[in-house]
Amino acid sequence: MSVSANSELRTPNPDPRPALPVDILRFNTCGSVDDGKSTLIGRLLYDSKSLMEDQIEALERSADITGGGQINLANLTDGLRAEREQGITIDVAYRYFATPRRKFIIADTPGHVQYTRNMVTGASTANLSIVLVDARLGVIEQSRRHTAIASLLRIPHLVVAVNKMDLVGWSEQRFLEIRAQFEEFLPRLDIKDVKFIPLSALNGDNVVDPSPHTPWYSGPTLLGHLETVHIASDWNLQGFRLPVQWVNRPNNPKNPDLHDFRGFSGQIAGGIVRTGQKVIALPAGIVTTVKQIWTYDGPVQEAFCPQSVTVVLEHDVDVSRGSMLIGPDHLPGASSELHAEVCWMHPRGLQAGRKYHLKHTTHTVQAVVTELVNKLNVSTLETEAAPAELNVNDIGEIKLRTSKPIVFDGYGTNRLTGSFILIEQGTNATVAAGMLMPPREVVKSEHGDYVI
Question: Per CATH, the architecture of 241-326 is what?
Fold first, then answer.
């Protein structure tokens, strides 16, 4: 809920029917250079009639410049001049569209090895990842690399889109060969839901509408799968977590009822919260009870991840930005000694002993890298022990020590409370994205009082 100093709390909607949460699927496209990622997104937008008239006119105007007289659907996402000149994706491009069944947020990520950090950034919040494979080339190093990164980021759903099937004569045998190549290394990765779809992004076969060229394929089109893939259970609904973003004190003189209002606002990062339930305020370690839960549409009896809410507590407790409200069950970890996987994003390499700011949920602390444990070869999934440094786009395990303990979950348990970024002191540049290993110890209880 957003409340300013001159505003009032929203009253409940007079409609007695409960508001349904908006079903949004976040997905990214990845793969090697020229596999057709941007063209695929353009085809999705074009065939699903999600483009405005001015966008279509702009595509037609640019056809003679970049498309040889033919509409270049990749221009819908490749907005940089360098991208259009080279015919590649450099930066992450976000696009939004909706169908009657679902809303979508797309991240078009680069295929070059040197832009691996951009791929990690774009995929970090995805529910689903689409790995494109050129049917002529089959599974190559970048295919394995991006599939491995999707696994590291714990993206629960994967679509292997075998593109350019028209260039191999719509061969079922070729499609099965590529599927077999993937299935050789997929068991080594942590991806539970994988779908293989043959298509042609350029011509639109099996993207939005079924293709007459694949009578041997009985599965859904790409859009059909995106509309129906089950994502409701992807959020962690066990163990309530509310990182406090700010203390909500309206203090509106026009409404005396708000004079003593004090709520704690933020986005629920895990679990379910209900009025009347006990919660623990960390790091103070005080047990209290939820008195009210407010959303933008008014008060509710319960809320769940990933809703944004304001929680009012029964007791006055020491809670501020960076604190976390948790449930008494499925307790998180709390430590200043952290073990994590990081993707290094800065041209200057990471070495042990370097100091950074570590931002975790709404909490920022100072941290020092105490050890480089290993460096991962994402193509072979082999590791190099104790590297001298991590260079740009490298992924590896490190150990850190923070100036204050942080409350966290393992990234595999909760992607929101298990992730962090490292910020360079002085320049405020984001230099790494990190995924925390499961904690060694959880928040402990002594005589009913929860402490760190």
Answer: Beta Barrel (2.40)
